[in-house]
Amino acid sequence: MPTVEPETAPARVEDDGPHADDSGYRQPEVDVDAMRRLLDGRYGDVRDLVRDNLTEHAQILVDQEQMTTADFRERVKDVVVMMAETGQTGMGFPEEYGGGGDIGASIAAFETLALGDLSVLVKVGVQFGLFGGAILQLGTRHHHDAHLADLVSGRTMGCFAMTESGHGSNVQALGTVATYDAEAQEFVITTPDDTSRKDYIGNAAAHAELAVVFAQLEVGGERHGVHAFVVPVREDGRVLDGVRIEDCGPKMGLNGVDNGRIWFDGVRVPRTALLNQFAEVTPEGRYLSPIDNPNKRFFTMLGTLVQGRVCVGGAGINASKVALTIATRYAVRRRQFEATDPDQEQVLLDYGMHQRRLLPLIARTYALHFAQEVVAGQLHDVFSGPGPIEQGSDEHARRMLESRAAGTKALGTWHATRTIQECREACGGAGYLSENRFAALKADTDVFTTFEGDNHVLLQLVAKGLLTDYAGEFEEMDQLGMARFVAGLAVETVVERTAVHKLVQSVRDLLPGGDTWDQEAGLLDPNYQLAMLRFREEHMIGGVARRLKRGIDQGANAGAVFSRVQDHVIAAARAHTERLVLEAFVSKTAALPDGDLKVALNLLCDLHALTTIEADRAWFMEHGRLSSARSKAISREINALCRKARPLAVDLVDAFGVPEEMLRSPELLGWPIGSDH
Amino acid sequence: MPTVEPETAPARVEDDGPHADDSGYRQPEVDVDAMRRLLDGRYGDVRDLVRDNLTEHAQILVDQEQMTTADFRERVKDVVVMMAETGQTGMGFPEEYGGGGDIGASIAAFETLALGDLSVLVKVGVQFGLFGGAILQLGTRHHHDAHLADLVSGRTMGCFAMTESGHGSNVQALGTVATYDAEAQEFVITTPDDTSRKDYIGNAAAHAELAVVFAQLEVGGERHGVHAFVVPVREDGRVLDGVRIEDCGPKMGLNGVDNGRIWFDGVRVPRTALLNQFAEVTPEGRYLSPIDNPNKRFFTMLGTLVQGRVCVGGAGINASKVALTIATRYAVRRRQFEATDPDQEQVLLDYGMHQRRLLPLIARTYALHFAQEVVAGQLHDVFSGPGPIEQGSDEHARRMLESRAAGTKALGTWHATRTIQECREACGGAGYLSENRFAALKADTDVFTTFEGDNHVLLQLVAKGLLTDYAGEFEEMDQLGMARFVAGLAVETVVERTAVHKLVQSVRDLLPGGDTWDQEAGLLDPNYQLAMLRFREEHMIGGVARRLKRGIDQGANAGAVFSRVQDHVIAAARAHTERLVLEAFVSKTAALPDGDLKVALNLLCDLHALTTIEADRAWFMEHGRLSSARSKAISREINALCRKARPLAVDLVDAFGVPEEMLRSPELLGWPIGSDH
């Protein structure tokens, strides 16, 4: 619920903030094409290719409603294969196997797919991201030659069999076993019990011929941790002996993806089935790995899969754009009540409440878009660097990337859930009809907050990185280990090691008022806005460290200590990620040449920054960084910003570049109900 | 997102509030049966009858996933008719027509239906609540004799054709016309244009034989406003001449209900088709009504339909119970990580974050349950009173009931949306599978926030009542009229006329500290909690009045003034309803005899009250009613309350009495994944 417009002192006549009537303000004209080019960034051509493909296959949005599940699954597969032929799904693979050789392009393509049917998106993610990505990143030449060309073209479909029923987020503890039989030079893959069945595996129930199976490697009676194997599961549509596959059955959404459960009963695969980028078993049964530490090895393997998280975050952000485009266009057509007086006829978006519902979400979508651009760019740079990944010199940078990907994924997918819901409600009963898109958007995106890492678990990962400064050993620590590690440090050490510590200091130097910067700086000064978010982040991290330390020092059970601090831990991670998001938006905007585009983006950036502060204004007040008067001033300023953004709203959503065919909603958008525009 | 656990001062060792270690606290034992009887209230037998019926027809939860839409619609209809035979759907009708003669019982029965498939619920609501309710309340003996027995038994299906495409919440402006032809002694029903087609009409696309049609009555060239008519639309499954019906097509959920659009092209019905409780047309064409004022007549007619809102609010609250039961039971089975140390093995609900996610929602569900009991009881009393409704002496009380019903419906249905979403996420990927209930719960309840009155529109109605003290003319005022009306009063008048004004004073007298009651009173003193909510309500209403008055006094356009104040208006209405909800919970609890049940409910009531204050703690700080230290203390107290409620959680949800068959979720609940309990 939007914040209450605060009651005003008698002397103040309107609720306008000091900036609402700035005589210097001139409403910008938004050049929709230019804004769209800015959003599309360096991969505009790739995004346009995907938009064209989506438009060509727009009928699938109708098929999703009308087909049986079995037919729809086939239809989705066919569309995926047809899209593969255009090259859009293979951008991240080496050119010699039919790929595009550009990881950044592959992320841009995937994100853009989220404007269309999301079963197609997820099927693409499973086939080319998870399955294909595992072969590419965990395998070596042998596996590349054997599989990449076929999977890039969609001739061979595969699945990614990692998650198990009983082990959820704790991949390292999974139960499937791969035992090396030196005699036969084969691995024997077995599911020891029902908690170790592979679960929710996309592409498994109907289409996958191959599976990348994660299992505990056992050689000569010794366990070496989780490794990945290429295992045939189906041939000519028939499930192979020793493999049992069950359909997960109907789901809330994404029913074009065939999720299944898989059990292995002594399935034999050759020694070369081990994806051996990071470890090898010799024919005679010796285990070799360039990474001695088993934990480090495990997390290095897992780290190569970070692209999936970046992609899902981007998909959430882009799905939000579809909902906002529909709801905003509807809001400038529809009237809440009949006109009783022509002067007072107002469309929905003229109402303060409706502005408050939609405009901050548009601003936040822009913010997350630019934050996503940063993380996708970093991923591209890290994974496009020279030489095998494990030799990359900057492990610290890679851990920061993983952390940033985790945080952005969490915020981007929660944003999708919230935005799509708000937009549905803002379209009233019409929003409930399937042809108006919200039904599929809601149902299909709902699981984004869970898959590729549950958001709460991901934020704990982010916090662990912050608290340990991405120490070499941080990946191996569980939450309790992290609590003990932090307890071993001075709190000042924890705080000073975080990047934010120096940032807070440097931004304070930019602001007027010295120690009272938080009272003197202008609300629309981005340095003020950033300083607030940095202060919060630093303060929260310090607070978590202090509480963990105190608890452990007093000899309390580490589990109980962590349990009590957990929401604080998650809040610190969220505060960190919010700061990264705002920084991305501020620096994108600052880099623009002067002009209307910059004016419009500054407006959105202010709206995003202030609504972010407003949402947690209680915390800022509790921690002495916001007076109640200034808190109220922020709410007023947001209302003023909403009124300024109102005339730009349609252009701002049109710049998202959602193809008209993806919007559907003929009655919401197509003919004038209760409006003569 | 739950509030951040605030960082603590160095002197404080744990984050426990002052009450967490109260030596006097003894953990209560919850007698599940006794708690359930308390929740079920005076209609326990009725609720059990419905539970039995739901269990008997539990297969429909599976059918919903597996059947085609056409088959599922038939199946839902059949179940509705079978349930009708047990009497559960006809509780509100006079006994002489096969009904139960008890309005309160009919609400209890309807609410309980929300534990099962919600298409059945909505179909029941359409047939017996909307269609049947209109015949009963707006019709007279003639209509009762002609239709009630058949509709109560389900032999005749009907629909309620009020909403039009272009007129949404503004029923008074609808476009369908009923012209009286004195010659033929018939009304001629016509849809003049596409914005006046009837839309989203449940039961219309397949099953209704009769429709109660709302149309502008025109007699002898004169318009008399909206009236209702019984119009045959189908015979032996064939749509009648002059009637055109279109299917609304697939929806996000509730696909067992056949929603349709209806157009009328000069359809003739006899003079007696007018539901003439409040108005009559004589054979020769004279219009007569006991209510002279056309606006008052319209709102009197509409007011008889308040039961629908009460029912939908209750349905939202009960659907939440299903989600919470599943998520809570899952949370005491599932572990987030493998046990590395047996002493520290924790199930999900042992984590502070998970407690914060679920336990306040359980507390709020209890609160809303008791608030719903109050509004349902008031409805029963008002509608069971002697004599025709329009002669009821206490119109003021009826307006307050309508307002309360509107507010409770808004809060109850938003609660459902939020709770079901949180519970789905708290069950991870498994929550996404249809067999685990959340898919249907989410999709089916989504429209609850919109139908039977959009929640934002309803809260504006609540605010209008508060601001005008339910003045006789208040129903006729649109928002702009309301703004002008309030501007004509002194602000003090507005505030003093509200019921809350005296309540704040009286509760302050109960609290220690005089003017500093907000700092001195104990956090767990219900008088303190109520005083906070009352203060907020009064302050917000005063603020709205002041801003409206100032704007209008300065000659600003009333539309612009209202637009700027709108979110404040809605917040005031919400604050009012929150106060009613807490009052209901406090007085229910206070009336219990001492014992464990009371201890447990006090715990929940405190948890609900403090989380309600915490959620808006920024407002309280901004308005001088909460110091930052006390605000932090409230958050700590909530954490302590969560830890106290943790051991009771399963019993508290089991007391909701959701039949096991309604939970499904075999894998979430049925066998021990990652747990040996």
TrEMBL record, chains A, B:
Keyword set includes Flavoprotein: yes
Acyl-CoA oxidase C-alpha1 domain ranges (all copies): 303-467
Coiled coil start-end: none
Cofactor: FAD
Record-annotated Acyl-CoA oxidase C-terminal domain positions: 526-666
Keywords per UniProt: FAD, Flavoprotein, Oxidoreductase
Domain Acyl-CoA dehydrogenase/oxidase N-terminal: 46-154
Acyl-CoA oxidase/dehydrogenase middle domain span: 159-267
The UniProt record lists the keyword DNA-binding: no
Biased composition, class Basic and acidic residues, residue ranges: 12-24
Region of interest called Disordered, as start-end residue ranges on this chain: 1-29
The family this protein is said to belong to: Belongs to the acyl-CoA oxidase family.
Name of the featured protein: Acyl-CoA dehydrogenase family protein
